[in-house]
Amino acid sequence: MEEPKRTLAYLCPKCKQSVVVEMSEFRLAAASSKLPCPCGGSALLVEMEADHADLTVPCLYCGEDHHIRCSAHAFLHEKALAFSCKATGLDCLYVGEEEPVFRALRRLEEATADMDETDKEKSFLNEAIMTEVLGELKDIAARGGISCRCGSKEYKVKVNFSSVELECGQCGARLRLPAATGEDLEDLCCHCTLLIGGKESC
Predict the structure, then answer these.
(1) Of 87, 118, 149, which residue is a domain's last?
(2) 135 and 80, same structural domain?
(3) How far apart are CA 37 and CA 18, in angstroms?
(4) Using an 8 Å Cβ cutoff, are 169 and 155 in contact?
(5) Distance between CA 72 and CA 82 in Å, rounded?
(6) Residues 150, 156, 160, CA angle at the centre, nearest 5°?
(7) Total structural domains in the chain?
(8) Does residue 113 share a domain with residue 31?
(9) What's residue 198's pLDDT?
């Protein structure tokens, strides 16, 4: 039987190329791992404990390392996880099954392909897309289509550089919606309702 594997992907801040590594769940769980970019300019560090994983993620956008902790079960078994830069809201690391990780990485590469120093001074990565996404969210909210798994319809909206985050006002659960590409907008338009803690469709 083939050993279950995990795919990890990040963008190197030194050479600005995608770094994708595939490792077995056993190897990840057994010991700490250092996953360097081939250019030698950065490395992703993974330190596994009994119940959690500590990650040190190099960030292309802010130039700093992000220190992230997540549960060991989620790190080793969730279909796909995305971790983002707090300064910009852009994803800096994907972990999960090969197909969803590569799909998310392609979208991230598209969103950042033409990003330069001027873009970093903007309020949003793609202002036209962000405007459309916020308009679509307003329409969904007007229909009473935003709620949380806990049953609450109270929520707060946080607008980031390339995403919008909905946070339940009662339990604190969150739903992050990418808002940088045409595909992000199309994906949101496919939903008549949004469930914080997950998505709901028409």
Answers:
(1) 118
(2) no
(3) 8
(4) yes
(5) 15
(6) 125
(7) 2
(8) yes
(9) 58
Kindly report the pTM of this predicted structure: 0.65
For residues 43 and 138, state if they share a domain.
no
- Residue where a domain terminates, one of 63, 86, 118: 118
Which tokens in the block code for residue 68? Answer: 């992230």
pLDDT in tens, 42-98: 999 999 988 999 999 999 888 899 999 999 999 999 999 999 887 777 889 999 999
- Residue 58 · residue 12 · CB < 8 Å: yes
Check if the beta carbon of residue 158 is closer than 8 Å to that of residue 164.
yes
Rounded (5°) CA angle 62-67-72: 140
Name the residue range of residue 151's domain. 127-200
In order of 17, 56, 135, 145, the CA distances from 27 in angstroms are 25, 18, 45, 43
79 Cβ neighbours under 8 A, 6+ residues apart? 96, 97, 100
Q: Tally Cβ neighbours within 10 Å of residue 87.
A: 15
- The pLDDT of residue 50 is 86
φ, ψ (nearest 5 deg) of residue 112: -105, 0
Report the pLDDT value the prediction gives residue 160, as an integer from 0 to 100.
Answer: 82
Structure tokens at 191: 């939903």
Is residue 51 located within the same domain as residue 137?
A: no
